[in-house]
């Protein structure tokens, strides 16, 4: 196939358009040996550039004698239309006509056209009438086909058109007919077009859907007229002649390029017809696409429900490639032009909906989780939970946790003495300051019960070294409480007592419906509460159990003895910090240990002597005074019963 282009080079060399028709005839003569020639040039009316036409036009402006002489002379001048008609008759040429909105008789069909069966369901490009070439040229040309293209973006080229009630071949079909020897086209049910030895299956639009392949060979009309094109490039080929220069105004928007000359679109369609590359959409294909989309929708829904997010993303990515590849495979194997968008949307939409639902659920769960802990955790931990909500297992788990319980001394009397507004303001200020301390040490404020604070370390997230963090927090809370009590002594605000214990506890959400509480249950929880209360016995502000004390570094803590706590079968060792801000001599520390050893041996005299030495160094040390008082009251055991004794 060859395209002879009336391009910018041709216009610059041979003059502006329209050319005299003898020049077109010369082009056709140069195409001798072509299997068929088709042109979309509409030769409407006589040649206005012919010498005879110009002479007759001039005669109209002359006096009668000169006009008659010029008319006689014009009869002897060359007739370009006759020259072109001779060239058309001497070659297998198909000229074009255009569909028109005016109702006019259908154009001639030199090769005929046969319709087999009912045209119901067929929807070719149609118009009430047509604009045709000069009658002498129509009569001379072996072929006459529609060169009209669809409006808007051109995605197909018609093989058959309807003019009024008559069916006529398109320019591509006429070129193919002439190249195959001139047999009459037959439109049969299917639909399909039958020519000599060729069957073209089509869709109801009776057009060729453009699917451009490699660039088609093209030569300039000027180069052809100047003899620069070898005969081998023409002989046996189907040639399409038409304008490609922008000045000719024949450029159309197509599905594969914005500005394509109409003759090139015709050439693309003819190339596809010659290679039987005819993508089509039969009437049943949309229904099949809907059925396939429904099946794929079920698959997408199942994938969305069953696959985790990462696997679902892989499924969606695979679908993005698999569906278009499947559509291309179908086109290559059967010429069926399926739409990939509907099946792809049906496959991905349920998966995307499931992913969106999972995302919304995750965000909601994350929001609930953050809201759950925002008031009781440090901001850094809340941020980490928001980023990795899976770290928190609120359904219940066993953890080794350190607990800090605090209470305000004399709070019941404070409530009785204070007005509601003053009490709430005072308590708010106290809890706000305590909460800052807890957050700074990484604790979780589990509960606020009146004046009491219940704090966890090591939950809901793992917290290495939580025993040391709990003790540091507890001691700072005690110091903060003493300072707060000093500043609000007139209101009767008491000091803060702290109990700290470590052990295995069950943590998780407790409750149901509208009542949910992330809390802890276990022996260590109860022990921390008992230790807080035991401060009243020992005269201390901070007490911790032996497991917590064992995790501390340095020698800042001393054992006070054993406590038989309420609700516990076995007594526990209790510890307290040495008086803060005081350098305790080694002799006093050794005397304290000796006193405990004497209590363990129930040697009251030795214990009294040892604690008396400590009292000499630390005369206001409450634990020492407590032990001496017990000895004076006849108690010589290392164990202290919280229930009295």
TrEMBL record:
SUPFAM superfamilies, per database record: Nucleotide cyclase
Domain Guanylate cyclase: 402-532
Superkingdom, natural source: Bacteria
Gene Ontology molecular function, alphabetical: adenylate cyclase activity
CDD domains: CHD
Keywords (A to Z) from UniProt: Membrane, Transmembrane, Transmembrane helix
InterPro entries linked: A/G_cyclase, Adenylyl/Guanylyl_Cyclase_3/4, CHASE2, Nucleotide_cyclase
Gene Ontology biological process: cAMP biosynthetic process; intracellular signal transduction
Positions of transmembrane segments: 283-303, 310-335, 341-362
Annotated protein name in UniProt: Adenylate cyclase
Organism in which the protein naturally occurs: Falsiroseomonas stagni DSM 19981
């Amino acid at each position: 196939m060859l395209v002879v282009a009336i391009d910018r080079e041709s216009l610059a060399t041979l003059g502006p358009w329209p050319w005299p028709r003898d020049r077109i005839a010369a082009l056709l003569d140069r195409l001798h040996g072509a299997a068929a020639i088709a042109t979309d040039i509409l030769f409407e009316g006589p040649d206005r550039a012919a010498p005879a036409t110009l002479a007759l036009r001039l005669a109209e402006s002359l006096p009668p004698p000169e006009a008659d002489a010029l008319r006689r002379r014009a009869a002897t001048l060359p007739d370009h239309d006759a020259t072109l008609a001779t060239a058309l008759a001497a070659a297998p040429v198909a000229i074009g006509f255009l569909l028109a909105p005016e109702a006019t008789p259908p154009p001639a069909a030199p090769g005929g056209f046969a319709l087999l069966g009912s045209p119901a369901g067929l929807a070719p490009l149609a118009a009430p009438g047509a604009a045709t070439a000069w009658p002498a040229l129509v009569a001379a040309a072996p072929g006459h086909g529609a060169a009209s293209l669809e409006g808007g973006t051109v995605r197909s080229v018609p093989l058959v058109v309807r003019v009024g009630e008559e069916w006529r071949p398109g320019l591509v079909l006429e070129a193919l007919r002439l190249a195959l020897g001139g047999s009459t086209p037959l439109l049969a049910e299917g639909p399909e077009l039958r020519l000599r030895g060729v069957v073209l299956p089509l869709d109801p639009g009776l057009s060729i859907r453009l699917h451009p392949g490699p660039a088609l060979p093209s030569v300039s009309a000027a180069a052809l007229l100047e003899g620069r094109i070898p005969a081998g490039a023409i002989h046996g080929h189907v040639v399409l002649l038409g304008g490609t220069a922008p000045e000719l105004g024949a450029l159309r928007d197509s599905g594969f390029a914005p500005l394509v000359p109409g003759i090139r679109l015709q050439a693309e369609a003819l190339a596809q017809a010659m290679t039987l590359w005819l993508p089509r959409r039969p009437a049943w294909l949309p229904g099949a696409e809907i059925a396939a989309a429904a099946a794929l929708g079920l698959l997408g829904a199942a994938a969305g429900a069953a696959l985790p997010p990462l696997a679902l993303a892989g499924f969606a990515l695979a679908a993005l490639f698999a569906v278009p590849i499947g559509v291309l495979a179908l086109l290559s194997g059967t010429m069926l032009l399926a739409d990939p968008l509907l099946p792809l949307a049906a496959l991905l939409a349920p998966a995307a909906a499931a992913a969106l639902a999972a995302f919304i659920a995750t965000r909601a769960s994350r929001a609930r989780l953050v809201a759950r802990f925002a008031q009781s955790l440090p901001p850094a931990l809340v941020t980490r939970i928001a980023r990795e909500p899976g770290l928190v297992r609120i359904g219940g788990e066993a953890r080794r946790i350190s607990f800090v319980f605090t209470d305000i001394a004399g709070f019941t009397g404070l409530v009785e003495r204070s007005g509601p507004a003053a009490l709430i303001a005072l308590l708010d200020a106290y809890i706000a300051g305590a909460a800052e301390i807890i957050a700074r040490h990484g604790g979780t404020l589990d509960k606020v019960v009146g004046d009491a604070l219940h704090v966890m370390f090591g939950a809901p997230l793992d917290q290495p070294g939580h025993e040391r963090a709990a003790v540091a927090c507890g001691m700072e809370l005690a110091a903060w409480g003493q300072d707060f009590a000093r500043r609000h002594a007139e209101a009767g605000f008491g000091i803060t007592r702290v109990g700290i214990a470590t052990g295995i506890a069950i943590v998780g959400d407790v409750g149901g419906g509208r009542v949910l509480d992330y809390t802890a249950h276990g022996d260590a929880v109860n022990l921390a509460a008992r230790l807080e209360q035991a401060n009243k016995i020992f005269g201390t502000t901070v007490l911790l159990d032996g497991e917590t004390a064992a995790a501390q570094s340095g020698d800042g803590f001393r054992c006070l003895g054993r406590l038989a706590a309420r609700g516990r079968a076995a007594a526990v060792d209790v510890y307290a910090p040495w008086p803060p801000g005081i350098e305790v001599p080694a002799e006093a520390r050794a005397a304290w240990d000796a006193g405990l050893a004497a209590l363990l041996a129930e040697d009251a005299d030795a214990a009294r002597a040892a604690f008396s030495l400590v009292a000499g160094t630390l005369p206001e040390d409450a634990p020492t005074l407590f032990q001496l008082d017990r000895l004076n009251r006849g108690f010589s055991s290392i164990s202290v019963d919280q229930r009295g004794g």
